[in-house]
Amino acid sequence: MQVSDILRIKGTALFTVAPDTPLHEAARTMALHDVGSLVVMHDGRLAGMLTFREVLAAMSAHADAHPPVGELMQRDPVHCAPHTSLDELRRLLLDSGTRYMPVMDGSTLLGVISFRDVARAVVQEQDFENRMLKAYIRDWPPEPAQPGTA
Question: What's the total number of domains in the chain?
Fold first, then answer.
């Protein structure tokens, strides 16, 4: 399974904000759409990622202020390509400590894969393999009769 397969199952809906978006507006967008990350776009290009981790840290540090997203976002986030394998994606997520991975085809943003999307894909893949194995076992050919036994 590859990242492109996960995107096909998940869909490519993206929620974006500009770097000058106030934090409270970004947090409202995340809550409204029940997402844990927003893609920060500047001049049609990926500028960074804003996740609930940055939102919580900023809200605890700037209780009364509403800094712009551009001051808080992860700049140059780790990203993957559509042909990245599921195993490689899991390693990238774990090694980078991120829960949201932009999927880039050159400079084009195709979508964002979350750790939850990966978990769902793994479960679906394992369920499929289990069904195939059970069908194979159920349809196992009978053992041929041994000579001299009745």
Answer: 1
Per-residue pLDDT, averaged over 111-122, amounts to 90
What average pLDDT does this structure show over 33-39?
Answer: 93
Strand order in the sheet with 37-42: 16-17, 37-42, 45-51, 74-75
Domain at 73, CATH number:
3.10.580.10
Looking from the CA of 129 toward its CB, the CA atoms found within 13 Å total: 7
CA dist 104 and 113 (Å) reads: 11
φ/ψ (deg, to 5) at 47: -100, -25
Residue-wise pLDDT for 67-82, tens only, equals: 899 999 999 899 999 9
The residue to which tokens 């894969």 are assigned: 113
Bridge partner residues of 113 (DSSP): 101
